[in-house]
Design a protein that fits this description.
The complex is a heterotrimer of chains A (184), B (311) and C (427). Chain A has 184 residues and is of the alpha/beta class. Chain A contains 4 helices and 8 strands, in the order βαβαββαβββαβ. Chain A has a 5-stranded parallel β-sheet, sandwiched between helices. Chain A has a 3-stranded antiparallel β-sheet with strand order 1-8-7. The radius of gyration of chain A is 17 Å and the shape is globular. Chain B folds into 2 domains: 7-134 and 291-305, 3-Layer(aba) Sandwich (Rossmann fold); 135-289, Aspartate/ornithine carbamoyltransferase (Rossmann fold, 3-Layer(aba) Sandwich). Chain B has helices at residues 12-30, 53-65, 86-95, 110-116, 135-149, 171-182, 211-215, 239-246, 250-254, 276-279, 286-305; strands at 43-48, 69-74, 100-105, 123-129, 160-164, 186-190, 206-208, 220-223, 261-263. With 427 residues, chain C is an alpha/beta fold. Chain C has helices spanning 68-77, 96-109, 132-137, 155-164, 191-196, 203-220, 232-243, 254-258, 280-291, 327-336, 343-357, and strands at residues 4-11, 16-22, 25-30, 37-40, 45-48, 50-55, 80-85, 113-116, 144-145, 171-174, 187-188, 200-201, 224-226, 248-252, 297-298, 375-385, 404-414, 417-421, 424-425. In chain C, strands 1, 2, 3, 4, 5, 16, 17, 18 and 19 form a 9-stranded mixed β-sheet that branches. A 5-stranded parallel β-sheet of chain C has the order 9-10-13-14-15. Classes of the chains: A alpha/beta (184), B alpha/beta (311), C alpha/beta (427). Chains in contact: A-B, B-C. Chains B and C meet through α4 of B and α5 of C.
Chain lengths: 184, 311, 427
C-alpha cells in the first residue's frame, strides 16, 4: 500500500530575495558596528560558512577593507549527542587574527530552537574571549527553546513545528532558495 | 561502529570517516583547544596486559582530551598479575561502568572474546592482540601517509607501500595490509622466508625476499621491529646477516625517490632493522606517527562513544 | 532380571523385527515376540553397543571435570557400552595400581565396560617404559597402551614399546605430534592461522610421526594404532602402509568429520582441540578414509574440561572437546546422511572394529541370538538441539552447543540391563 504523501513545498525566498537580504544584512552590520575594524564573521557549518563568506564579501565592498571570516563547527558541543550515532565533524577555521577581543558575529542559515547557537557559543569560548558576540541569520523561524535571539535577521518566517525550513545555496545545492516543506 | 577489533571491520567509508575525523581533531589540537566535550560522562578503561607505556599514554591522552574519565588497569601489580582471569576482570570493569575498554593483550583474539563472550556491554578497542592485529596503528599509519602523499585528503589510491621485517609475528603488518588495501594502496611485503606467515600468498599484497629490488617505486617504506632473539629459534643466522640483507641503511634510503617517507611503528631496534642515520633523517616521519596516534585514537573513541550506543 | 523386547526395530540396514533381551544375552529375534517390558523400536535402528577406544575420564586427579561415574553416564547416553579410559590422569596410569583403581571404579559405576589404557612411558615423560607387563597382567587386563596427550617422540623408545607389547598381544596407540614442529601451536597451520595470528600446528607434524611409526611397526613386526588421525596426508600414509601389509589401525574423531578450521575465526576456545580442526580438504579425506576402511574406527577423544579452562582467551584455554553424547548423531550426519556409509559400516567402525583392536571379546558382537546384550537403539528421525547446560557429562565443553544434530539414542542395553530407556538415563 503506497501513500501518496507529497510533502507540500513552497518557495518563500528566491535567489534575488536572498541576495537582497544579504545586502541589507551587510548594511545593517556596518551601520550598527559603526565601522569596527575588529570584526570577525564566524559561520556555522555547513551553510552558515557560505553565508559568512558572502556576507564578508559584501561588508568589505561597503567598507572598502577586508573582513576576517572563519568557521566554527559545533558538532561536539551539541546537547543531543546521545540521540544518534556519532556525527561526522566539520571544519573549524579560526582566521589569523583570532577571536580574542574581537567583535564576533556568528552566521547561520536558520535560527530555530537556539540550541545550535548555544553550542556555537561554547565552541567559540574554547578559542578565546571575544569582546562582543552577535548573531546574524538568514531566516528566523521562531520556536525558541533557549533565551537566544538574533541581532540581524534576513527574514522572519513564522512556521509551525510540523514544517521544515530548507535553505538551499548555490555552493552546496546548486540553487539559492528558501523553501518551507510541510509533511502532510 | 560498536567495536574496533580488526582493520577488516572498517569499510572504505568507515576508514575515510576515521581519517577525516582525526584531521578535524588534529586541527583542534593545533588551534590550542584543550579539551573537547563529546565524551563527558563516559568512562574509558585501558586494560593493558602487555607492558606498553607509549600506546597506553596515547589512548589515555586521547580519551582525556575528549573529556572522558579514564581508568588504567595494567598487568603489573594488579589482580591481573595475580592470575585473575580475563573474564573476572571484565566482569569487574562492567560493574565499574566502563563504556569502552581499550585492551592490549598478548593472546591473539582476546579482544574478540571480550567483545563477544557477553561479559561486558561496552565497546572494545583492540590496542594490539598477540600477533593478530593493531588497527589503530594502521589508522595512524594511513593518516600519516595521507598527510604526506595525498595532501591530507581522500584515500591512498596509487600509493605504493613497502613493509619490511618480521611479518610473521607482526600485528602491525596484518592490520596495515588490510587497511591499506581498503584505502586503495598497493602493498609489498619484504622478509626472509622464515619470517613470512604460511599462506601469505593469499594475502592482498606482493611478497619479496629481496629488499633492494623492492625499494624501487616505493612511496613509503615501513620498517618493522625485528627482535635479535629470534635468531635463537633459527629464523635467521645472526643479527649481522639480518641487518645486512634486510636492514634499512643510508645507502638503501638514498635510492628511494625524493618524496618517499620512512615509517616505523616503534619501538625501534636501531642498528637492526633500521640504522640510526635513517631513523633520524629528514625522510623519517617516525616521531610524527606518534603524534598522529593521539588524533587517530581520539577519532576512534569519538566515533565509538560520541553518539548513541552504536548500531 | 527383567526381560525386554525391542519391537519393530531395524537391525542395522535390515527390515524391522523384534529383539528379546533376557538374562544378559540376546534371547530371540523374530516377529510378534513378547517379554516383561516393551521398548518401542519403530522407525529406529539397532546397533551393537558402541565401543570407544579413546576417552578421557579424568579420574583420578581431575574429578572437577569428570569422574568414572559421570563419564560412564555420558557414554551410556551416547549409546556406548564400553570405553577405553586414557592414561593421562593424575597420577598417571603407569602402574598396575592405578589401572586397577580405574577398572574398579568402572565396575562400581556398572554402566559400561571401563577398560583402562596404560601409559607407554612413566609419567608420560617419554623417557622410560611404564610397567606395561604388570598392567597387562593386572585385573584391568590392559591391552591398549598410550601416552595420549603427548607423543612418544623418541624413535628408539617407540621401537622398544612396539616390540615389548607383542608379549601380551598389546597395541601401542600413538598420539602423533612431533613436539619440535608444534611448540606453542594453537590451531591448524594454514591460511587461517596466518590471518588470525595464532601459532600453527602443521599437518606434517602428524604425518611425519605416522610415517616413521608404520615403518617401525613393520620392521619389528608389531601392530600399531594411530589415535585421532586428522589430515589428508595421514590417510594416504595409512593407506600406503596397509597396502604393504603393515599391521596398522587408525581412528578419527567425530569432530574431525564435522568441523573445519574456519570456525576458529570466532576465537571461541570451544573449538580448540588437539589435533586441531583442519581444512575442508582434510575433512573430505578423512570421511572418505573412514568410508573405505582405511580409517578403521571412530573414537571420540572425549576430553572434558571445567568451564574456567574454556571461558577465556584462546591461548589460555585447554585443548579438547567432549564427544560421547553426540558421537552417533555426528557420525550419522556426516557419514550416513551423506551416503558415504550404511548402518552396517557404522556398526563396524563404532563397535566391531574398536572391540577387536582393544581385544574386548564381550563387545562388538553381531546382533544375533546368544550374543551378549550390548545394544543401542537409535532413532534417526528425531532431532536434538544441543544445550551445553544439559550435558550428562560433568563438563559443558561441547562444540555442538546451539546446533541441531540429527537422531537420538532411545535406549542403550549393557549386559542386558537398560542404561538408557526412552531417551533418558536409567541409572
Amino acid at each position: 500500500m503506497t501513500h501518496d504523501f507529497e510533502p507540500q513545498v513552497h518557495a518563500i525566498l528566491d535567489s534575488s530575495d536572498i541576495a537582497r537580504a544579504l545586502t541589507r544584512l551587510a548594511h545593517e552590520i556596518v551601520e550598527r558596528t559603526q565601522g569596527a575594524t575588529n570584526l570577525t564573521l564566524m559561520g556555522i557549518p555547513t551553510r552558515g560558512t557560505s553565508l559568512a563568506t558572502r556576507l564578508g564579501q559584501k561588508i568589505s565592498e561597503i567598507q572598502g577593507s577586508p573582513v576576517s571570516v572563519g568557521a566554527i563547527d559545533i558538532t561536539m558541543y551539541r546537547d543531543d549527542l546521545r540521540s544518534r550515532p556519532a556525527r561526522a565533524l566539520l571544519p573549524t577555521t579560526i582566521p589569523p587574527e583570532g577571536i580574542e577581543g574581537r567583535l564576533v558575529i556568528l552566521v547561520d542559515d536558520v535560527l530555530f530552537s537556539g540550541r545550535t547557537i548555544r553550542a556555537a557559543l561554547d565552541a567559540l569560548s574554547e578559542h578565546g574571549r571575544p569582546e562582543l558576540v552577535q548573531l546574524a541569520v538568514l531566516v528566523d523561524r521562531g520556536h525558541r527553546e533557549l533565551p537566544i535571539r538574533a541581532d540581524y535577521v534576513g527574514k522572519n518566517l513564522p512556521t509551525s513545528r510540523a514544517e521544515k525550513v530548507q535553505v538551499n545555496l548555490i555552493e552546496h545545492d546548486g540553487i539559492d532558495e528558501v523553501r518551507i516543506v510541510r509533511e502532510s | 561502529m560498536k567495536h574496533l577489533l580488526s582493520a577488516a571491520d572498517l569499510s572504505y567509508e568507515d576508514a575515510i570517516l576515521v581519517l577525516d575525523t582525526a584531521k578535524q581533531l588534529a586541527a583542534a589540537t593545533e588551534q590550542g583547544v584543550g579539551k573537547l566535550p563529546p565524551l563527558r560522562g563516559r568512562t574509558v578503561v585501558n586494560l593493558f596486559y602487555e607492558d606498553s607505556t607509549r600506546t597506553r599514554i596515547s589512548f589515555e591522552a586521547a580519551a582525556k582530551r575528549l573529556s572522558a574519565d579514564v581508568i588504567n588497569f595494567s598487568a603489573k601489580g594488579s589482580s591481573v598479575s595475580k592470575g585473575e582471569s580475563l573474564k573476572d576482570t571484565a566482569l569487574t570493569l562492567e560493574a565499574m561502568g566502563a563504556d569502552a575498554v581499550v585492551i592490549r593483550h598478548n593472546s591473539s583474539g582476546a579482544p574478540h572474546r571480550l567483545a563477544n563472550a557477553g561479559w561486558i556491554s561496552g565497546g572494545v578497542v583492540n590496542a594490539g592482540d598477540g600477533t593478530h592485529e593493531h588497527p589503530t596503528q594502521a589508522l595512524l599509519d594511513a593518516f600519516t601517509l595521507r598527510n604526506h602523499l595525498r595532501n591530507g585528503e581522500g584515500d591512498l589510491r596509487g600509493v605504493n607501500v613497502t613493509i619490511v621485517g618480521d611479518i610473521l609475528h607482526s600485528r602491525v603488518a596484518r592490520s596495515n595490509v588490510l587497511l591499506l588495501n581498503t584505502l586503495g594502496a598497493k602493498v609489498r611485503l619484504v622478509a626472509p622466508p622464515t619470517l613470512l606467515p604460511y599462506g601469505v600468498e593469499d594475502w592482498e599484497c606482493e611478497v619479496s625476499y629481496d629488499l633492494d629490488a623492492s625499494l624501487e617505486g616505493s612511496d613509503a617504506v615501513m620498517m618493522l621491529r625485528v627482535q635479535r632473539e629470534r635468531m635463537n629459534a633459527a629464523y635467521f643466522p645472526n643479527a649481522h646477516e639480518y641487518s645486512s640483507r634486510y636492514g634499512l641503511n643510508l645507502t638503501r634510503m638514498n635510492r628511494l625517490s625524493e618524496s618517499a617517507i620512512i615509517m616505523h611503528p616503534g619501538p625501534m631496534n636501531r642498528g637492526m632493522e633500521i640504522s640510526a642515520d635513517v631513523a633520524d633523517s629528514q625522510r623519517s616521519v617516525i616521531v610524527e606517527q606518534v603524534a598522529n596516534g593521539v588524533s587517530v585514537r581520539m577519532a576512534v573513541l569519538y566515533l565509538i562513544l560520541g553518539g548513541s550506543e552504536s548500531m | 532380571m527383567t526381560s525386554y523386547v525391542i519391537k519393530d526395530v531395524a537391525i542395522l540396514d535390515g527390515k524391522p523385527t523384534d529383539i528379546v533381551v533376557k538374562d544378559g544375552v540376546i534371547a530371540e529375534i523374530g516377529s510378534g515376540l513378547a517379554a516383561d517390558q516393551i521398548v518401542d523400536g519403530s522407525g529406529c535402528v539397532a546397533l551393537p553397543g558402541l565401543v570407544d577406544l579413546h576417552t578421557h575420564l579424568r579420574e583420578p586427579g581431575r574429578e572437577d571435570a569428570e569422574t568414572v561415574l559421570s563419564g560412564s553416564r555420558a557414554a551410556a547416553m551416547g549409546g556406548f557400552t564400553a570405553v577405553h579410559a586414557m592414561a593421562n590422569t593424575n597420577p598417571v596410569a603407569d602402574t598396575a595400581g592405578v589401572v586397577e583403581q580405574v577398572w574398579r571404579l568402572g565396575q562400581e559405576a556398572g554402566l559400561v565396560d571401563v577398560r583402562p589404557v596404560g601409559a607407554v612411558t612413566m609419567g608420560l615423560e617419554g623417557t622410560a617404559l611404564a610397567e606395561l607387563g604388570a598392567m597387562a597382567d593386572s585385573a584391568a587386563a590392559v591391552r591398549v597402551f598410550s601416552d595420549d596427550g603427548k607423543c612418544v617422540h623418541d624413535a628408539a623408545l617407540m621401537r622398544r614399546a612396539l616390540e615389548y607389547v607383542k608379549a601380551f598381544d598389546g597395541v601401542v596407540a600413538q598420539h602423533a605430534q612431533e613436539p619440535r614442529l608444534t611448540e606453542g601451536a594453537q590451531m591448524n597451520e594454514g591460511v587461517i592461522s596466518g590471518k588470525l595470528g595464532l601459532a600453527g600446528w602443521p599437518a606434517v607434524a602428524e604425518e611425519a610421526i605416522i610415517a616413521r611409526d608404520v615403518l617401525l611397526a613393520h620392521h619389528v613386526g608389531s601392530r600399531l594404532h594411530v589415535c585421532h588421525l586428522s589430515t589428508a596426508g595421514s590417510v594416504e600414509i595409512i593407506r600406503w602402509a596397509k597396502s604393504r601389509g603393515i599391521n596398522v589401525t587408525a581412528e578419527v574423531t567425530p569432530h574431525h568429520l564435522y568441523f573445519t578450521d574456519d570456525v576458529v575465526e570466532s576465537y571461541d576456545p570451544i573449538f580448540k582441540v588437539n589435533p586441531p580442526l583442519r581444512t575442508k580438504e582434510d575433512v573430505a579425506a578423512v570421511r572418505a578414509g573412514l568410508a573405505d576402511g582405511t580409517i578403521n574406527i571412530v573414537a571420540t577423544d572425549h576430553a572434558p574440561h571445567p568451564s574456567e579452562d574454556k571461558d577465556c582467551e584462546w591461548t589460555a584455554a585447554a585443548f579438547g572437546m567432549t564427544g560421547l553424547e553426540s558421537a552417533l548423531s555426528v557420525v550419522y550426519e556426516t557419514m550416513v546422511q551423506t551416503g558415504l556409509m550404511n548402518w552396517a559400516a557404522v556398526a563396524d567402525r563404532m563397535s566391531v572394529a574398536p572391540a577387536q583392536i582393544g581385544r574386548v571379546t564381550t563387545q562388538g558382537q553381531p546382533i544375533e541370538v546368544g550374543s551378549p546384550a550390548n545394544l543401542v537403539v537409535f532413532d534417526p528421525r528425531a532431532n536434538q538441539l544441543v544445550d551445553a547446560r544439559k550435558t550428562v557429562s560433568a563438563s559443558r565443553n561441547t562444540p555442538y552447543a546451539g546446533r541441531t544434530l540429527p537422531g537420538k539414542v532411545v535406549a542403550t542395553f549393557y549386559r542386558g540391563k537398560p542404561t538408557v530407556l526412552n531417551g533418558e538415563l536409567n541409572a
